[in-house]
């Protein structure tokens, strides 16, 4: 089982034993012109984990923020935990290292603490000289993705080589279901340290979480506030879904605890040994989102939040393309 530190601030990853902060700062949708300053401010607020991805298109600016924070003595490299992700166009073994080195270069680092396979979807390679990040469409326009037949086993073997070479400390996966993980564990020489998934009270995924943690795979939750990040993308059920931050139950629990609704949602995950990676450009929310380990929810409150589960998934390639990986 995954091990949580005595002070509950970190999760010990297998097999390396490295400690991953249980509260991090997510860089998805952080504008490039604000990235550098947001990184610095997040470190000042106490965050020590930054969750990045090549697909976010802002790793160079994140790297500038990391350098600034280190140069100013706000943090030391050994005190921070940096995650990035392999994009779908780089699943072929000959492109895995290329993608990792590009992320390292943009972030200004010699080694990543964690490198994840972003999706269990392999799509046609796009030369970075043509377009970076390549996003989903081979021609940059769509409407259809061009799939590439690369077995996950080949991609994972290339990920393991990154560890062998010292470019990455830990490797992991994202947006994968239990069947895929079962198959991966049959051939993995280095087992995945982390599974990152969409996770909030509308999408609990309890069996998947139980299975992963039983197999020493730590969980990181993204989209902890539910539909909030997907409304602007025009996803119909995200627009129609009652916002979790405004849900009567969430607000009631927050009032009783003397906390914000966001803190309650983050605590609901963290209290079950699940790491969270919220983001905010608001200074007060930046600080309050980090303060989710100083209080506990009652068993009744935890169960009440869990009972909100509707299986509502917002980050689903099947909604945008004909790739229903969660069907």
Automatic annotation (TrEMBL):
Keywords: Oxidoreductase. Substrate binds at residue 118. GO terms for molecular function: oxidoreductase activity. Residues 25-309 form the NADP-dependent oxidoreductase domain. InterPro entries: AKR, Aldo/ket_reductase_CS, NAD(P)_OxRdtase_dom_sf, NADP_OxRdtase_dom. The active site is at 56 (proton donor). It comes from the Eukaryota. The record marks 85 as: Lowers pKa of active site Tyr. This is NADP-dependent oxidoreductase domain-containing protein. It comes from Powellomyces hirtus.
